[in-house]
Specification:
This protein has 357 residues and is α+β, with helices and mostly antiparallel strands. It is 16% helix and 40% strand.
Length: 357
């Protein structure tokens, strides 16, 4: 009788093991393993026991092209959310995940793309070697985030003989009325110098990028502008007026926060200017450390990613201007969205600012 009981018990355990294998397991896939779905062109790389990285390519039948993806967010032991990049999108689809030996699947519970339906099961198989399309995607993502990109900006230059007459406060008020307002605040702080003029501030009309730069020379004394090397673009987001954005450039490198905005009516009449000029003296603009060396300085959460990197000139404080690698860190968690600046010469983290709305 005892032998029969032991036999039945072992048989039940065997049946339960088989059912568990068939229905999937809560056990996570092994670390440092690749999983591939060739139909949708997605590959996954599992890098630890609970949070995962995803890199891949998802063919979008609606646009007859690929959505490139680099984000997989696990809210708990089962739910998984796939997001796209280039450009970043909201969740493409969500589902419950299941793992068993050599097989990983996602049962779709919600989809925001027409070619993946709720109820679909997307199956990934473990791969020792990545297919060619996956290698191409991995290389492109690595280049986008960590490549040594050319960050130089082509500015507009005007010679001193093209400068307009520098106007004084009294001359602007006398010419354009006492309703002109001069502000000495920048980002909510009293700056001690004028950073905004509300009202007409120049003698010319502004219709082109060159006009915008020339107009800025009218207020060079008032706003303490010492040089005029700027990248100028028209902000197309505005429909009821024209807005020109002038970004300060030094030796071909963007000066972070060295920006002026000029607002203009549809007929070319300037209505306001605001911004800050950053004084730079003999700054070495050849980085000693690469972008990747700067990236190695800091860590980010597994649900975060580096959305943008570039070489910039950054003003730390009064008379302290540095050449920095700038990292714009995005995240599924709003509290982890950050701007990070690493000194390109000594690798000092000079700023790590949480960008919470």
């Amino acid at each position: 009788m005892k032998k029969i009981f032991i036999f039945i018990l072992l048989l039940l355990l065997l049946i339960l093991s088989i059912l568990r294998l068939y229905n999937g397991s809560d056990t996570n896939p092994p670390n440092s393993t690749f999983w591939v779905n060739d139909n949708l062109k997605i590959f996954l790389y599992f890098n630890n026991d609970s949070i995962y990285k995803i890199y891949g390519k998802l063919y979008n039948e609606d646009i007859n092209d690929y959505i490139e993806i680099m984000s997989m967010y696990c809210r708990d032991d089962k739910i998984i959310s796939i997001h796209g990049i280039f450009p970043m999108t909201s969740s493409l689809f969500e589902g419950t995940r299941r793992y068993r030996k050599n097989r990983f699947s996602i049962s779709v519970t919600n989809s925001n793309v027409s070619f993946i339906k709720t109820g679909d099961v997307i199956v990934f198989n473990q791969a020792d070697d990545l297919p060619e399309w996956a290698l191409d995607v991995e290389e492109k993502i690595a280049e986008h985030y960590f490549g040594e990109n050319d960050n130089t900006i082509e500015p507009i230059f005007i010679s001193s003989c093209e400068y307009l007459e520098a106007l004084s406060l009294d001359e602007i008020v006398g010419s354009y009325g006492r309703n002109v307002i001069f502000e000495r605040f920048h980002h909510g702080h009293h700056s001690g110098k004028i950073n905004e003029i509300k009202g007409r501030f120049t003698t010319i009309e502004i219709n082109t990028r060159e006009d915008a730069l020339k107009a800025l020379t009218s207020v060079r004394d008032i706003m303490n502008i010492e040089s005029f090397s700027y990248a100028v673009e028209k902000d197309e987001r505005y429909t009821h007026q024209n807005v020109f954005i002038l970004t300060q450039v030094y030796n071909g490198i963007e000066v972070f926060n060295g920006i002026f905005k000029i607002f203009v009516t549809d007929t070319g009449i300037p209505t306001s200017v605001n911004g800050v000029y950053i004084n730079i003296v003999d700054l070495n603009t050849t980085p000693t450390n690469s972008m990747q060396q700067a990236r190695d300085i800091f860590n980010i959460e597994d649900v975060s990613w580096v959305e943008e990197t570039k070489l910039v000139i950054y003003e730390i404080g009064k008379d302290d201007v540095r050449l920095c690698w700038f990292f714009n860190v995005d995240s599924m968690n709003p509290k982890d969205i950050r701007w990070i600046f690493i000194d390109a010469h000594n690798r000092e983290k000079v700023m790590d600012s949480i960008m919470v709305n």
